[in-house]
Design brief:
23 strands; single chain; 2 helices; mainly beta; eight-stranded antiparallel beta sheet
């Protein structure tokens, strides 16, 4: 199964405006400004983001959430969705680390002006220089010898920018491709759950901050433009989310396996309702049969005979209006289960936005999952709505 939760706090910290807070900005931004006259004057921005993981942790401990194949835990994936990418390099990297100090989100926005002056911004809450605000708390991010020996920090021009542990990290490389961020943060989350680290969220920054030199994309003097992502305060369906993936499929059935890559078939969702309550957990069952069954003498109509799809069959969920993928196909986490009543799968409905419509898409793969020799897609308007 794939279950996702939304971020409960996030902000961008800007090196160029060291005390500015952007806690309720609708945008998260990775920005790099390189001085045209002096490349040593470089100003970056970084993203701080956190999730309420209490219910996830309890479900893992109670084995309600199981393991992902090949791991001794579930898999955790951090997703950020691009609002705008400006003057970005065709090749770059992004990394995420666990933050090693506490921080406050704040209530500022980058465009806010408290006193109307050119530099009068909200300064309470996390910023490049302060982790909790300039005036009321005044705690600066640790730097130099003040940094805990198990963590680190770095900056280009202005001291600050957060601190983080380096024992676990997530990274993603981009090479002339889409800019949505999808980071495997399993090691970081497991360190929080097993008590190795205190959870203070993720810090997201450009690659190479620990290596230095040309591979340090924050300090190598090259411009990388601006990447803007939707924040938790966006009024869209593109809030940052953390996916939890685990294998919950069981494959044991005496029913006939219908190879849909060879036989034209009908796949339908049995007794599907038009809407489901957001706090429910629903099991969906499929009806699988040949579209043109061969004529035979039998006491039961072939149209009433249920089959099961091949073992390599999967489900996905899309937003009905935007067609955006909400739950992607995954060769382990979205595999369909089988029993003697047919195929089925379970969803936790509170991960969906209320009063929106979604649809199911089903897929059967022949051969290797990543390099299939054949494939059948079933996208027949299996539509449902989630209510409050």
């Amino acid at each position: 199964m794939i279950y996702s939760i939304k971020a409960n706090r996030d902000t961008t910290i800007y090196e160029a405006t060291e005390s500015l807070n952007a806690g309720i900005d609708e945008v998260l931004e990775l920005q790099k400004i390189v001085s045209a006259s002096n490349t040593s004057n470089t100003f970056n921005s970084r993203i701080l983001i956190d999730f309420d993981l209490e219910n996830i942790s309890q479900s893992v401990a109670a084995a309600v959430i199981g393991n992902y194949p090949g791991l001794s835990s579930p898999k955790y994936v951090l997703n950020l969705y691009t609002l705008q990418a400006t003057e970005i390099d065709y090749k770059y990297g992004i990394e995420a680390f666990p933050v090693s100090q506490s921080w406050l989100m704040g209530r500022g926005r980058r465009i806010d002006k408290v006193g109307g002056g050119p530099s009068d911004h909200v300064t309470e809450g996390a910023s490049w220089k302060f982790r909790d605000g300039e005036k009321y708390f005044g705690n600066q991010w640790a730097s130099g010898s003040q940094i805990d020996g198990n963590s680190t920090g770095s900056f280009s021009t202005t001291i600050g920018g957060g601190t983080w542990y380096t024992s676990s990290k997530a990274s993603q490389s981009f090479n002339y491709e889409g800019t949505d961020l999808r980071l495997d943060v399993t090691d970081i989350v497991n360190d929080w759950f097993n008590g190795t680290r205190v959870q203070d969220g993720f810090i997201i920054l450009r690659s190479g901050s620990q290596e230095g030199g040309e591979v340090d994309e924050e300090r190598n003097g090259r411009p990388y433009g601006s990447l803007q992502f939707f924040s938790a305060d966006t009024h869209t369906v593109y809030q940052p989310k953390l996916e939890v993936l685990w294998s919950d499929a069981t494959t044991s059935s005496d029913l006939n396996v219908l190879d849909t890559t060879l036989t034209e078939s009908i796949v339908d969702v049995k007794n599907m309702k038009s809407s489901y309550e957001r706090d429910s957990r629903e099991t969906f069952r499929l009806v699988v049969r040949e579209k043109f069954p061969a004529k035979t003498f039998d006491t039961v109509s072939a149209a009433l005979t249920n089959n099961v799809l091949p073992q390599q069959s999967y489900y996905s969920v899309r937003d009905y209006v935007t067609d955006e993928v909400v739950i992607p196909f995954d060769n382990s986490a979205t595999q369909l289960s089988t029993d003697n009543n047919g195929n089925y799968f379970t969803l936790w409905m509170d991960q969906f936005y209320p009063e929106r419509r979604y649809k199911f898409v089903f897929k059967t793969v022949g051969g290797n999952y990543n390099y299939p020799t054949s494939q059948s897609i079933f996208d027949n308007e299996y539509i449902f709505k989630v209510t409050k």
